[in-house]
């Protein structure tokens, strides 16, 4: 079995640059906990693996995950990111600008994800990254399945939820919703899924092509 030391080694394999580290500090100050460096590297890898030109993100935070996604996307790729907090998106915009990312490469939409997502184009995205309200993960999956193209990938953050998902005694609404999500994608024949134990866990789901 993988030890804590090995997991730490995997997390530290790709050191974070100054731009992501600065965005991380802003996010933590606001209470918008960002993806870990290891999970961020996985997002870059997944975006590159599907040659992503269009990515939708639920939960902008201070821009940490957006930076990682943009780095894995095609040079002309566009990130569409939705967040309820305008202050989060202001900091994300500053982080992207500081990293030299052209403004035409990202679109930040302030609002409730479940109100914004229905306005986005069907099958118009190569990857959808979800880091929003855990209780709504099942609804986000419904929207993401409509948004992502065949062969595209959906990624959920916090799939291990602070070690609570693996503990059957934990039955709070957030843990239960994540557990239900994992069971649903595992049992759906049209989906391939992989649970990656980096950061707080990434659940990657590929839609059959």
From TrEMBL:
<dbReference type="InterPro" id="IPR002935">
    <property type="entry name" value="SAM_O-MeTrfase"/>
</dbReference>
<dbReference type="InterPro" id="IPR050362">
    <property type="entry name" value="Cation-dep_OMT"/>
</dbReference>
<keyword id="KW-0949">S-adenosyl-L-methionine</keyword>
<keyword id="KW-0808">Transferase</keyword>
<dbReference type="Pfam" id="PF01596">
    <property type="entry name" value="Methyltransf_3"/>
</dbReference>
<keyword id="KW-0489">Methyltransferase</keyword>
<dbReference type="InterPro" id="IPR029063">
    <property type="entry name" value="SAM-dependent_MTases_sf"/>
</dbReference>
<dbReference type="GO" id="GO:0008757">
    <property type="term" value="F:S-adenosylmethionine-dependent methyltransferase activity"/>
</dbReference>
<dbReference type="GO" id="GO:0032259">
    <property type="term" value="P:methylation"/>
</dbReference>
<dbReference type="GO" id="GO:0008171">
    <property type="term" value="F:O-methyltransferase activity"/>
</dbReference>
<protein>
    <submittedName>
        <fullName>O-methyltransferase</fullName>
    </submittedName>
</protein>
